[in-house]
């Protein structure tokens, strides 16, 4: 009787251990939950691509204005929100650069942190 009981316990333990291994396996790509997880992980990548493309578009728009030195301007884009920082040579260019950025398709808001570059020997 003890042998049958022991064999039964071993068999039950094997079944439980096998079912635990199956539950611990990652889901296959054909399941809906896995497909949702895959799209959730790929969304930030496409968001970053869109942010980079918007940033390049803002730089290109600023670069078309030869009177503005875009080399000292930093553009950060995140989900359509653009932040401008750095320096320009003239105070009138601060608002001009912001207006240029606002005119770029895909820009939803502009935060302007531009300052006027002080001359090297000036006070």
UniProtKB/TrEMBL annotation:
Annotated region (Disordered), positions in chain: 27-47
A Pfam cross-reference name: BON
InterPro entries, per database record: BON_dom, Lipoprotein_DolP, Transpt-assoc_nodulatn_dom_bac
Signal peptide: 1-24
Domain called BON: residue spans: 50-118
Keywords in alphabetical order: Signal
Chain intervals with Low complexity compositional bias: 27-43
Protein known as: BON domain-containing protein
Annotated source species: Paraburkholderia bengalensis
């Amino acid at each position: 009787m003890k042998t049958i009981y022991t064999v039964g316990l071993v068999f039950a333990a094997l079944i439980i251990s096998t079912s635990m291994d199956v539950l611990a396996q990652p889901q296959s790509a054909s399941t809906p939950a896995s497909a949702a997880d895959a799209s959730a992980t790929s969304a930030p990548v496409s968001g970053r691509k869109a942010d980079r493309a918007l940033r390049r578009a803002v730089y290109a728009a600023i670069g078309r204005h030869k009177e503005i030195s875009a080399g000292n301007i930093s553009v950060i884009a995140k989900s359509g929100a653009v932040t401008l920082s750095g320096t320009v040579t003239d105070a009138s260019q601060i608002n001009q650069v912001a207006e240029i950025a606002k005119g770029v398709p895909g820009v939803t808001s502009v935060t302007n942190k531009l300052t006027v570059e002080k001359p090297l020997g000036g006070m």
